[in-house]
Design brief:
This protein is mostly helical. It has helices spanning 2-60, 62-73, 88-96. The protein contains 3 helices and no strands.
């Protein structure tokens, strides 16, 4: 009789595993995705704050606007000297030729 009871218990355990394991796996996957998305949200919120700060500067700081415009257009003020920094790797390549 004990052998039959053991087989019944094993069958019940197998059924329970078949029923609950897929749900548990999905739950774990969703928890992982949730953590990942929370990290992305944090990064996007930081980016948003940086952009809001830049918008504020663009609206209120004429010196900042001038600097951004000059940087984007490649314009220099009269009397300014532009220095170009070339990485060491690039200078080594050009001198070997």
């Amino acid at each position: 009789m004990a052998k039959k009871d053991l087989i019944k218990i094993l069958i019940v355990l197998a059924i329970l595993l078949a029923v609950f394991l897929p749900g548990f796996s999905k739950h774990q996957r969703l928890l992982f995705e949730n953590r990942s998305l929370k990290g992305k949200i944090t990064e996007l919120e930081k980016s948003k704050m940086n952009l809001l700060g830049e918008i504020r500067l663009l609206k209120t700081d004429p010196v900042y606007v001038e600097g951004k415009a000059r940087e984007k257009m490649g314009v220099v003020k009269k009397g300014e000297i532009i220095y170009r920094v070339v990485p060491e790797e690039q200078t080594a390549k050009t001198t070997k030729k």
